[in-house]
């Protein structure tokens, strides 16, 4: 018989698992990993709202995408174009970034799978006599290791030609040059930290759903069990 067990700790773990998966996915897809040096606007670039010259802009560069300004675009107030600069995997600017993409993609796939499974932990708490929380926690720990490897390798690619064109000639491996780190990089780091927190917290979710109070309510014949 299926028992729906909802506890404060198990729900918190489920929500964190979903948030972490989405945060890492959004960061991976974003082009805001590196913020390039300011590009001065030409005298012909006029702000339609103020009538004056537009302020210098900062192009951004991601693992496989970029955002840059398109000159003389009159159809819309938005004058930046974002999209992938690499049409296929081999065109990613650096071998280190290719490795980063692989490690991050594997980690994110694991996190997304855990986030999907976590929704069903209210009804299913074990698989083949093994706690689903412990299995998911182990998978989150493995995903965190993949994410760490990807984030460590990413700065090694700052010396590639693509990064140098955005960050200046002083850019090299682990040296930003004229660039600065964008929100996507910090989001990926924060998501990695939360991944390990989720892995540890999965043990608390297991304890909460197998506590004596839960067993007592199961013995009383209740199918829906909610505990704070």
TrEMBL record:
A Pfam match: L_HMGIC_fpl
Recorded GO CC terms: membrane
Gene3D superfamilies per record: 1.20.140.150
Membrane topology of this protein: Multi-pass membrane protein
Compartments where located: Membrane
Keywords: Fertilization, Membrane, Transmembrane, Transmembrane helix
Residue spans crossing the bilayer: 12-35, 96-120, 132-154, 183-203
Biological processes per GO annotation: single fertilization
Protein family according to the UniProt entry: Belongs to the LHFP family.
UniProt-recorded name of the protein: LHPL2 protein
Underlying gene: Lhfpl2
């Amino acid at each position: 018989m299926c028992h729906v067990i909802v506890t404060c700790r198990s729900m918190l773990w489920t929500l964190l698992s979903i948030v972490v998966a989405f945060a890492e996915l959004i960061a991976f897809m974003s082009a805001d990993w590196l913020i390039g040096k300011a590009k001065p606007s030409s005298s012909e670039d006029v702000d339609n709202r103020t009538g004056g010259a537009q302020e210098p802009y900062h192009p951004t560069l991601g693992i496989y995408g970029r955002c840059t300004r398109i000159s003389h675009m009159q159809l819309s107030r938005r004058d930046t174009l974002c999209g992938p600069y690499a049409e296929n995997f081999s065109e990613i600017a650096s071998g280190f970034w290719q490795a980063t993409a692989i490690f991050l993609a594997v980690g994110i796939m694991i996190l997304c799978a855990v986030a999907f499974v976590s929704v069903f932990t209210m009804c299913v708490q074990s698989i083949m006599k093994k706690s689903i929380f412990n299995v998911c926690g182990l998978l989150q720990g493995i995903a965190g290791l993949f994410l760490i490897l990807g984030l460590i390798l990413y700065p090694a690619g700052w010396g590639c030609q693509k990064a140098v064109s955005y960050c200046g000639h002083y850019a090299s491996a682990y040296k930003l040059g004229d660039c600065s780190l964008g929100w996507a990089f910090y989001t990926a780091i924060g998501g990695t930290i939360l991944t390990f927190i989720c892995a540890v917290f999965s043990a608390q979710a297991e304890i909460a759903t197998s506590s004596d109070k839960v067993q007592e309510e199961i013995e009383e014949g209740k199918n829906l069990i909610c505990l704070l």
